[in-house]
Every structure is written in structure tokens, then in C-alpha cells.
């Protein structure tokens, strides 16, 4: 039994958020549902695929408390198709467990199932806690998660590392061929580390907004919890020791150049036209005092290109898998970037002109 | 051998057009290519999947004439990735049949193959010819092709009928359960009829622009040719007798109502939430003097809705497959539409408030 009303826009937004944690098709049918509960002055919705769970609360005018589980796709479609008016949405569950949804002239009637077996979000007890702006977490994930490994051999590399030391946070993605590091200062006085699964990190990008509101992040040995003003997300964390990413780029620079990001991105992208998984080709950068010449050759053909740079150090020839360069350049916002090299067999490093807000490290391909 | 230069934007646009006729994967490898030819002052490109062929000409500065066939995907990617400058594109085929493409600092080098076996566009000789504005053909196809059948049992119904009688053209799509008719006046003095395959009609939507420029359409027993100022498209036509679409809506009206298109679309769409292929449910319209009540029931649940109308005639209950109503309403631009009914077992007709620019006829579902 349940009887309540709430704002249509609040409800639509809450459904959109929690359904991101509902698996599309699963052998465990209870997970395809959305848990709903009318509590004192609030309506609660939960989606949980056991790897990631999302819970939302919205204000509600509750006449009779109650809870149930509804079919996620049906409930979500019905709510999204409600008339676009300012009318409130009435919801009622009768003694036969039928859910009635009413808004204006539109009336839906669905059966519900027992909510008893629905897995509620893990509690994340005894954890450490820190806070960050919503938009900042979103940006740091976006600029590192692309570099995460999709191969399961090294599970830790399929996740994004959150490494907090006092007031410095590093967020890191790495697949063994490249490392993407994003660094920021936050208000915090303790140390903590956790690895968020890459898949869930990508879902978080869709859930987190662009606001300056603080998100509370709590971590224990098994789970991490993100609490925004709109919802709670709990994700499993990946167990294991992450690689020592700070020592990867410790080589002495012998060559450094500044270049327009668009220019180098377009040149490498052009060369990549003739590189695919099968051809396993690389792109050769011939760096001299004023320009970089690009050379790429595969069974499909040849591509040459050239762009001007602002260089310091010794000329060098160095080769890369173009995919790693392209993905790094695409995930940077700056117009100009700085590339540093040590030898043709040590990693290249991409940084901002000033500081180390991001550090992208890319292994070269050895050439004869 | 070939040596020429042309404008980069012209070339990019031409490649985008002809590649729509290149099949993605085909057992006949020659069809995966684009035919290129440098002629007197012009560069010609052709894509042809034998069902639909597209040919473009662009102005070119030709030093040495020549022709070849290039791999469609490689050529198209290379052209689209050329530097975004005002520089001309140079193309040259050397004595080893390698194609060199140069624009600014970017240089591509691909092998080509013999163009001998490439199938040129059919000539469409001895055909009848008429002319129409580009944007009008596009609009008429868009508003009828959605109703075409996707089932191969009746091949004529998988195509869009073009029926020209003197200065009246009707474009018609029909799948046996609904008919979509678009009617316009054009300047023409002869009669002709042809059925354009639905698949090619959809490709034409992407090729035709929104301009008022005239397109010359020529038809013979096998093919139809559309000639715009930019290119030539030749499509196979479907053989067979089309149904007599003009007699389908000849019933006497007993009920007629005017309604806001958005209102009825949203109501029916809401009801369709609980209708899928498996449930085979229908939506029941209970039409009275001032409003339509919507009722829909399936194993998934129940939906009710209601909207106001401006009605003349006798009240009626009539049921439909919601999909046919929704697709018709979505393809109309008008804010208000007129629906006419005769009996609960004869087709309903959707028309503009004035005239018969479009006539959408939909068979009802028989209810007990």
C-alpha cells in the first residue's frame, strides 16, 4: 500500500539517474527493477546492478507510506511520457499490488512485485571521507578514464586510481602503454587510495553535473560512495596494488617542444588513416629545430605531413602508435601543449605550458 | 596516368555524395571502390552498388587526363582529413598506378586498381522526363517512405510510387495496413508512373538538398535518373502493378474531428508504452462530442488518457495499432490536423484542415 504525490520534473530526473544503474538484461530478474518507497515527506528510488548502485530522494507529499519494486523499463518510459505540464504526479499502490500513476488526463496502471529481495545500497561503514566539487571530479575522470585498460589480465589497470595525499589528489588511468595523470589541490588532511572500475567511472560521467556543489566521497575496503545533493552512488572498488605511476616519467629531458594541440592532433589523425589493428603500423616523428615531419607507412599506403613547433634541445626521431597520441590530444582542453622527450626508447610526456595539472605519458614504439 | 588539381571543399562534398552508393561489404570487390576520372576541366567520381549509382562532377584544372578505381573507405577518409585550408588539392597517378594526394603539408599515397570492370551508371535512354524542385521531392519522399513495407512478399509495396498525371504528382507509400499519399502540382503535361525502392528513397533523402533548384527526373522501363546541378543518381525501379490507392478512402464520412497534432501524438504514444510486438495490443479511441478517451490494455498494464477535440458527426469507438497512428502524426508538419471516420471497420483518414496535400489512410483493428 502506498499513496503520495510529487513534482513531475523531480521524478523524471530521479528516474533518469537511477536507471543508469539498472542492467539491461540480467539473469537475476530482481536487478531489472527499480525499488520505490514512499517515506516521511520523501520518495526514494533505487537502481542497483551490484557493481554500481544509485539512490535518489525527492520531496513528496506522502499520505500513506509503502514500498514496491517496478519493472524498470516500463516505469521509466511511463514517467518520461507523462504530460509536460506543471501538474503533480499521483502514485498509489492498491491492495492487489497494482501501481496507479496519474498526471493530468494520463493514467497508467502496472503490476508491481515484492521489494523484499531487492538489494539495497552497501553502507560503506568505517570509511575515510573527503570532499570535492562535482564538476572537478567529472573533469578529472573524463581526462583519465580514456587511458584505462579494457583487458582483464591486470584487473587494477581496468580501473581509475584516486590517490589522495593530504591536500593533493591524483586521478590516474593506465593501460601499460600510456599513463594519464590529473592532479589538483583539495581541502583534505588525510591519505587514501582506491581504484574505481573504469565502467563505473564512465557511468559517473553521466551522473555528475557541472556544478560547484561539494560531493562527499567515502571509501572503505570494498566500496566507494559518492554523495551529491541529488543522489548517492555506491561502486565496488578494485582490489590490488596500482603501479607506481609517479616514477614513470622520471627521465631527463633532452628535447622539448610547444605546439598547437589542434595542429598535431590533425596531423597524427591524418597519418592514422592507414593504420588499423591488422597493419600494426606506427607513425614516425622526425623532430628538428623548427618543425616535426610525420611519416607513416602500411600495406594500405603512405602518409606524410609536417607542422611547425617551438623547440628546445636535440633533434630526434621517435615512433608511436598513433592511437595513443590521438586519444591524449583529444582529451586535453588547452590550445597549446608541451611535449618532452628523453630518448627514442623512453616515454614521451605531454604537459600544460605551466604546471602539471595533467601529465600524459606515452611509450614509444621501438624502431630499427 | 593522371595529373590535376581541384578545390578541397568541392572534392569533400563530392566524395560524401558518391560514397552513399558504395556498399559497405560486398562479395563483388569492385563495388567497394570509387571510380575517379580526370577529364577536360572536370573531375568525375562514381559510386555504384548496382541498385543505386551516384555520379558527381566538380570543376578541375586537369594537366593530364586519366582514370582509376580507389578503395572507397581509404579515399574518403583521406579527403575528409585534408587540412581545413583554402589550398587546392593536387592528385597524380604515376606510372606504377599509385595515387598521390597533396594538400598543404599533407601527402597521401595509395595504390589504385584498374577501372575497367567498374560498372558505370545506366544511361536511362528513351525515357519520359519531368522536373521538380529539389526540396519538394525531398519533402514528398520523407512524408511517405515511412509507410513503405519492409516485407518482401509484395515487392511493389517495398517501394515509393511516383504517379504523375499531367500537372499533378502523387507520391505514395503503403504496407497493406496504411497508405501515405502526398500530392502536389508541378509543371508537366504527360503521364508516367514508377516505383522507387524504399531503401534508395531513404538514401535520396540524404543526397537531395533543401534548395529550390530543379531536378530533372527521367524514367524508362528499368531505371529512374535524378539529375541535380551537383550530381546524377540512377536507381533501379520495381516492376509490377501498384494498388489502386485512390479508391482506398472512398467511404462516406460519419464523423470528423480537428485536433492539435502534438496532443493526439503524445496521448497515443503514452498508450503505446505497454504495446509491443509480443503483446499485439491495440489502442481504443472512444470519440464523443467534445473529447477522445484513450484506452489501452496489455499483459504489461493499463493506460488511460483523454484530449479535447472539435467534432462533427456521430460518436464512435474505433481501435488501432498505435504504431501506425504515431508514425503518421510524426511525419506531418501542421499544428492541427483533421481525422475522418466512416465505420469502426473502415479506414480512418488524416488530412490537413484544408485541401489534400497529404492523405494518410489507416486500417483500424476489428474489436469484438
Helix content of chain A: 10-25%
The CATH class name of the largest domain in chain A reads Alpha Beta
- What is the CA-based Rg of chain A, rounded? 25 Å
The greatest interface here is: A-B, 28 and 29 residues
Count of separate structural domains of chain A: 3
CATH homologous superfamily placement of the largest domain in chain A: DNA Polymerase III, subunit A, domain 2
Structural class of chain A: alpha+beta
Short description:
Chain A is of the alpha+beta class. The first copy, chain A, is 17% helix and 43% strand. Chain A has 3 domains: 2-111, DNA Polymerase III, subunit A, domain 2 (DNA Polymerase III, Chain A, domain 2, Roll); 128-246, DNA Polymerase III, Chain A, domain 2; 249-362, DNA Polymerase III, subunit A, domain 2 (DNA Polymerase III, Chain A, domain 2, Roll).
Commentary on this structure:
- 2 copies of one chain form a homodimer.
- The first copy, chain A, is of the alpha+beta class.
- Chain A has helices spanning 8-18, 72-80, 134-145, 198-207, 261-271, 322-330, and strands at 2-7, 33-39, 42-48, 52-64, 66-71, 88-93, 98-103, 106-111, 128-133, 159-165, 168-174, 178-185, 191-197, 214-219, 223-227, 231-236, 255-260, 283-287, 291-298, 301-308, 310-313, 316-320, 336-341, 348-351, 358-362.
- In chain A, strands 1, 2, 3, 4, 5, 6, 7, 8, 9, 14, 15 and 16 form a 12-stranded antiparallel beta sheet that branches. Chain A has a 9-stranded antiparallel beta sheet with strand order 13-10-11-12-25-24-23-17-21.
- In chain A, helix 1 runs antiparallel to helix 2, helix 3 (134-145) crosses helix 4 (198-207) and helix 5 (261-271) packs antiparallel against helix 6 (322-330).
- The relative contact order of chain A is 0.12.
Amino acid at each position: 500500500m502506498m499513496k503520495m504525490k510529487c513534482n513531475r520534473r523531480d521524478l523524471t530526473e530521479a528516474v533518469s539517474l537511477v536507471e543508469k544503474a539498472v542492467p539491461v538484461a540480467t539473469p537475476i530478474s530482481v536487478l531489472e527493477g527499480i525499488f520505490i518507497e514512499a517515506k516521511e515527506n520523501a520518495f526514494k528510488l533505487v537502481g542497483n546492478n551490484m557493481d554500481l548502485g544509485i539512490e535518489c530522494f525527492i520531496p513528496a507529499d506522502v499520505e500513506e507510506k509503502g514500498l514496491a519494486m517496478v519493472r524498470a523499463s516500463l516505469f521509466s518510459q511511463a514517467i518520461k511520457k507523462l504530460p509536460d505540464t506543471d501538474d503533480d504526479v499521483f502514485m498509489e499502490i492498491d491492495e492487489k499490488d497494482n501501481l496507479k500513476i496519474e498526471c493530468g488526463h494520463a493514467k497508467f496502471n502496472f503490476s508491481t512485485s515484492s521489494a523484499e529481495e531487492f538489494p539495497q545500497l552497501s553502507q560503506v561503514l568505517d570509511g575515510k571521507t573527503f570532499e570535492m566539487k562535482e564538476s572537478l571530479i567529472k573533469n578529472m575522470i573524463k581526462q583519465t578514464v580514456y587511458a584505462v585498460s579494457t583487458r582483464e589480465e591486470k584487473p587494477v589497470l581496468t580501473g581509475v586510481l584516486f590517490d589522495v595525499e593530504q591536500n593533493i589528489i591524483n586521478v590516474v588511468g593506465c593501460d601499460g602503454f600510456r599513463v594519464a595523470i590529473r592532479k589538483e589541490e583539495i581541502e583534505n588532511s588525510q591519505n587514501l587510495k582506491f581504484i574505481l572500475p573504469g565502467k563505473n567511472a564512465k557511468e559517473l560521467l553521466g551522473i555528475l553535473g557541472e556544478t560547484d556543489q561539494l560531493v562527499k566521497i567515502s571509501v572503505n575496503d570494498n566500496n566507494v560512495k559518492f554523495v551529491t545533493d541529488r543522489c548517492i552512488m555506491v561502486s565496488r572498488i578494485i582490489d590490488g596494488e596500482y603501479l607506481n605511476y609517479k616514477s614513470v616519467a622520471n627521465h631527463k629531458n633532452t628535447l622539448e617542444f610547444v605546439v598547437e594541440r589542434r595542429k598535431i592532433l590533425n596531423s597524427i589523425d591524418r597519418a592514422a588513416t592507414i593504420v588499423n589493428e591488422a597493419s600494426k603500423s606506427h607513425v614516425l616523428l622526425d623532430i628538428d629545430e623548427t618543425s616535426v615531419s610525420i611519416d607513416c607507412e602500411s600495406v594500405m599506403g603512405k602518409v606524410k605531413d609536417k607542422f611547425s613547433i617551438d623547440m628546445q634541445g636535440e633533434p630526434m626521431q621517435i615512433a608511436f602508435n598513433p592511437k595513443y597520441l590521438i586519444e591524449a590530444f583529444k582529451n586535453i582542453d588547452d590550445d597549446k601543449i608541451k611535449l618532452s622527450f628523453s630518448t627514442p626508447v623512453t616515454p614521451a610526456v605531454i604537459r600544460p605550458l605551466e604546471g602539471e595539472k595533467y601529465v600524459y605519458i606515452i611509450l614509444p614504439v621501438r624502431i630499427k
